[in-house]
Amino acid sequence: MQDHLLEISKNILAESDVDLVLTLAIDHMLELTGAERGLIILFDDKGNEIFQTARRLSKKDIEHPKFQVSFTIIHHVRSTGQPLCLQNAFEDSTLQKSESAARLKILSVICLPLLLHEKLFGVLYLDNRTVEGIFEKSACDFATRFADFVSLAAFNSLERKKLTNRLESLEQELRIKYDFTAIIGHHPQLVKTLKIISQIAEADATVLIYGESGTGKELVARALHFNSSRRDKPFVPINCSAFQENLIESELFGHSKGAFTGAYRDKIGWFQKADGGTIFLDEISEMSPALQAKLLRVLQSGEFSPVGSAKILKSFVRIVAATNRDLPTLVQHGSFREDLYYRLNVIDIPLPQLRERKSDIPLLIDHFLDKFGHHHSIRQKALDMLLQYDYPGNIRELENIIERAAILAREKSIDMEHLPPMLTLHEKSSVSHHAGKTLTQAKRSAAQNAEKEYIIDYLRASHGHITNAAKMAGVDVSDFHKAMKRHKIYPGEFK
Predict the structure, then answer these.
(1) Contact predicate 25/153, CB 8 Å
(2) How far apart are the first and last CA of the chain?
């Protein structure tokens, strides 16, 4: 019996699905105790029923008034936390006052609390309506010991289910967060960039992102990763300017024990850890010539060696690099390898500065207000000031300004006093075309202006050929016609 119990317990503990765990548990209990029917109920932390699994009991049986005697027993065990093993439930002093017990005359019953760390989170119920005294002491002892296994297996399954659900939820949040639609803006230049990104996401080609600090280079790199088949593998961002030369080489490629002072053990580098995923090399222009040579080798063959080791390792990673500097100029000056530049520049993605896409500022303000939980309005003067500023720090600077304003304003509308002094110092005599409009009006105006510029761009590219322009834009010709009419755009102007 002991060996059989151990084998059964191993089988149950190996299952991850809670329904299957409970079903297997009841089946084995019926077989080994001679019980006629079985039921397991699990409860959450608040005492609410979350799972109910039965054998030889239908939902109709459980809901029938006659089954209430069984619930009288179950509630008793749940409230006391003590097991019940009854030879004749009808004659038991605990249940004699129950009218339902008198009606049903259940004979043999085992009802056990499912406990973990002395906390009750379920009840196991077995009965036999025809044979009195079928549950001998040995059967009750076996069932009590077996209930401990059931408790552990059911708890583990529920925890795995919670973790799986949480993981799926986090993955969904990541997909939403780094979906292309999460990149805010309607400006034609940004729309073109997003179209390129969506086309190349599934490719393994190396990508080089150009853009000033704060334009969203890492956000684009993450979007490329999380919208590709590599999404379940690691995404590793490395800022090349943040490490000393010897440290970044060790971070990227790992090192062997004794490779340098302080290398007391072997270390796995990010190229090995991120195998199958994506490595984002920000500020690639700051990489030393020696490290550039090592990176070139990875790009050419996928091979590398840890620092201090002759061992050759391979890694199938996608490299996305970014810079805010002019790499061709650095190549001319000899500070950046020409062969590495061409290896990196398979697909280049230029990101526009925020001052080049000011029509998107109202949309970004609204997004950041929502992100920081500020649900109050912005005073007109403050909004006008935000729309006029040039943002040398780009989107990151705008985000910081809105976060600061939301904190200072608290429950009030954001006003001039909540904006940093530098905005007033940089105030321009020229007024934004959004000035004087509410945030809602500015957002609507921004979308309309962006749509108009978008149409004009494609008509210009197609030399006024509407069908070709619509095809290039990826929209239906009739919708393109309607938009032209809405904005009073005439194709003859572009021929």
Answers:
(1) yes
(2) 91
Phi, psi (rounded to 5 degrees) for 123: -140, 135
Sequence letter at residue 307: V
**Phi and psi angles of residue 177, each rounded to the nearest 5 degrees, phi first:** -60, -40
User: Is the Cβ–Cβ distance between 259 and 308 less than 8 Å?
Assistant: yes
For residues 279 and 317, the answer to whether their CB atoms sit within 8 Å is yes
User: Residue 388 half-sphere exposure, CB side, CA atoms within 13 Å?
Assistant: 21
pLDDT at 430: 42
Q: pLDDT tens digit string along 409-431? A: 887 889 989 999 888 766 543 44
| Three-class SS state of 271 | helix
Alpha carbon distance 298, 206 (integer Å): 12
Helix (H) / strand (E) element for 319: namely strand 318-323
SS3 content of the chain, % helix, strand, coil (to 5): 55, 15, 30
Burial per residue of 456-471, b for 16 or more beta-carbon CB atoms within 10 angstroms, e otherwise: bbbbeebeebbeebbe
Query: Residues 122, 154: contact at Cβ < 8 Å?
Result: yes
The rounded distance, in Å, linking the Cα atoms of 4 and 154 is 20
- Token pair of 66, please? 């006659």
Q: Which stretches of 58-213 are DSSP H helices?
A: 59-63, 68-80, 99-104, 137-177, 188-200
For residue 226, give both structure tokens.
Answer: 């999380």
- Full DSSP string of 415-477: -GGGS-HHHHHT--SS--TTTT--HHHHHHHHHHHHHHHHHHHHHHHTTT-HHHHHHHHTS-H
Structure tokens at 205: 């080609």
Residue type, 468: N
* Domains within the chain, CATH numbers bracketed: 2-164 (3.30.450.40), 183-352 (3.40.50.300), 355-494 (1.10.8.60)
Contact 287, 299 (CB under 8 A): no
Instruction: Please tell me the distance from the alpha carbon of residue 403 to that of residue 397, in angstroms, as a whole number.
Output: 10
pLDDT digits (tens, 9 = 90+) for 226-276: 888 998 899 999 999 888 877 888 899 988 988 888 888 888 999 999 999
pLDDT of residue 146: 84
Residues 20, 5 contacting (CB under 8 angstroms) = no
How far is Cα 454 from Cα 460, in angstroms, rounded to an integer? 10
**Helix, coil or strand: residue 15:** coil
The pair of structure tokens assigned to 353 is 């500065």
Gap between the Cα atoms of 443 and 91, Å rounded: 77
Amino acid at 337: R
With beta carbons less than 8 A apart as the criterion, state whether 181 and 320 touch: no
**Lookup result for tokens 């809670």:** 18
Q: What is the largest CA-CA distance in the chain?
A: 100
Contact 253, 306 (CB under 8 A): yes
